[in-house]
Amino acid sequence: MATKLFDKILIANRGEIACRVIKTCRKLGIRTVAVYSDADDGALHMRMADEAVHIGAAAAAESYLVIEKIVAACKKTGAQAVHPGYGFLSENRKFAAALKDAGIAFIGPNPDAIYAMGDKIESKKLAKQAGVSTVPGYLGAIATTDEAVKIATEIGFPVMIKASAGGGGKGMRIARSADEVAQGFSSATNEAKNSFGDDRVFIEKYIEQPRHIEIQVLGDKHGNVIYLHERECSIQRRHQKVVEEAPSPFLDEKTRKAMGEQAVALSKTVNYDSAGTVEFIVGPDRSFYFLEMNTRLQVEHPVTELITGIDLVEQMIRVAAGEKLSIAQPDVQLNGWAVEVRIYAEDPLRGFLPSTGRLARWRTADESAVIRNDTGVVEGSEISMFYDPMISKLCSFGKDRAEAISTLSAALDETWIAGIGHNVNFLSAVLDHPRFRAGDISTNFIAEEWPAGYGGTVLPEGRQNAMLAVATLIHIRNELRARHLGGKLGLPEWEPDADWVATLNKVQYPLQVSDAEGGCDVKVGKHKLLKVRSAWKPGQPFFRGTVNGQTVVARVSLRPDGVRVVHGGAELDIAVRTPRAAELARLMPEKLPPDMSRFLLCPMPGLVVSIAVAEGEPVKAGQALAVVEAMKMENVLRAERDGTVKKVNAKKGDSLAVDQVILEFA
User: Fold this and answer.
1) What CATH number does residue 37 fall under?
2) Catalytic residue at 640?
3) Which strands make up the sheet holding 225-237, listed edge to edge?
4) Both 192 and 313 in a single domain?
């Protein structure tokens, strides 16, 4: 006889993960309670839930992180259980214990398991006892710089200095020499103390060209634990995951089984009884070493659900209600391939600085059997400076890796975000990169391929020519529409000149264009003929059609002097003209952007924490001028060259927009 599930669950989180939990609760017939802060009043998760309780001010420390307020909301609404999502209180032992004391079920592991795996030093000791492969290193807290240098030398360079209570890349340094250990130890301890209130660090061997591969585990309260295969999470930027996929293109069945069995052994050691993830670092020879265990639902859990058909949130709820796992290890099948990208409100062209504001446009590919969109926003939603800037986790499914990547690339081409900065073009560039397509990746991939930072995407010549042809069809149909609206009726379907010219990045490309049923045929210079076919009509934001029989999707919009085509991560401003018009356009004076070198501009929307200089004060290149906080991160703005401050336009506490002037120099 099946255990009775809960009647009402409170989700102690916000955004996309709260919405995702609500979807499973609806499927199970369970009522839901959302909690929301001042900044989230009217948010999607609040509207999706059956009830919503206000829990405080915008700052997480005054709302989502206050245990007493969550417990009070449960008592007020009669919620019998709490799902914590990820982040916030999801791995807080005190929170799980407080719920237990209040007679409220915690949909997650028992407090002792959270505690055991929450400390990186202690968790590594437990892993070693459980027979799990661990990275060579020193697992005790290190007190002094001299001790750190001695230990690192004994382990052998390079080494990784890591905060014991760390996460999210904070308190981590790679050192390749004794001098770098001395410097890194000081920085890591300071950062760990400031971020976590715990300055303990440890040192372990750094694995060159590592892959980050994690095993999803699932346990119940009756001693049963299984693993649900692996996720490859090697595409990272500053230790933050960007692209995840399941399974890994690198593992063979023998390594997969060994990693899975070790993950289960560790889980059983701590009596793990929920969904969790055991993370490993994997070397080029498929040697693998325990990294840490996350005692919660992972951000990237959808790719596991897509390849196994198992709803992890449902399993967490059933386990919390006391049910035994209905799935045994042989039941876990690996079917197809799934890839996920994290769409963030950030500007890759500005060093991935966070972007805040209102989502004027938010559209992407429709959800289907091969597309999943986990989001917590809609058009008109506000991306706040107070929380993580995630817009969506866009996922694809395919029969194999190539199909899943192609499906997701096409979905990104169908994505339209306006009103804020976003990383969609960068994600497209990663998915289209030959190294990624070949599976030749490591955690160093982004740093190696964009060492100077992302500066935009340049399409290969063949794909660029296809976009020139697409822009030609769009231009001609817009011209025809304009002529018809102007009253010139009775025109033939369209009247192309024998020769046209497309201009892109000041380079002019001669075109030969001819009419064709359903589109046109375009020859760019001496290249092969491109047959463009589409039902696209003026005013539609997306071009969907074929070029030489290959499906093409692009976002298109009219510009003052042509058409903007966004495809494959590239933004192309293309003007299509007659040869005479192109000749005259070459003679037009170039409009140069204004010289802003005399100003310190705010690089992102944020709050002024401090201004370090005064009017009339001389400054040197590299000197700190101001600190601006955005998305819980402080950004120090420095002088690019020597100068003198002429005017200070901002003060501590001011909220600034992107490119707002902070200082003016003489």
Assistant:
1) 3.40.50.20
2) no
3) 288-294, 275-282, 211-219, 225-237, 240-246, 337-344, 390-398, 371-375
4) no
Lookup: tokens for 501? 């010219």
Marked catalytic residue, from 292, 300, 340, 346: 292
Ranges of beta strands (E only) in 472-583 are 499-504, 507-516, 519-524, 529-534, 542-547, 550-559, 562-567, 570-577
Q: Buried (b) or exposed (e) across 438-477, using 16+ Cβ within 10 A?
A: eeebbbebbeeebeeebeebebeeebbbbbbbbbbbbbbb
| Mean pLDDT of all residues belonging to the chain | 92
Domain total of the chain? 6
Same domain, 223 and 366: no
Token look-up 């409220």 returns 104
pLDDT tens, residue by residue, 614-657? 999 999 998 999 998 876 667 889 998 899 999 999 999 998 88
Q: Are residues 128 and 260 located together in one domain of the fold?
A: yes
For the whole model, what pTM was predicted? 0.86
CB 398 within 8 A of CB 337: yes
- Same domain, yes or no: 270 and 371: no
Name residue 200's amino acid.
Answer: R
User: Of the residues 539, 554, 586, which one is the last residue of a structural domain?
Assistant: 586
Q: Answer whether residue 2 is part of any domain.
A: no
**Would you state the pLDDT for residue 187?**
84
Query: d(Cα 322, Cα 78) in Å, to the nearest integer?
Result: 19
Residues in the chain: 666
Residues with Cβ within 8 Å of residue 436, at least 6 apart in sequence: 235, 243, 405, 430, 445
Quote the radius of gyration of the chain (alpha carbons, Å): 28
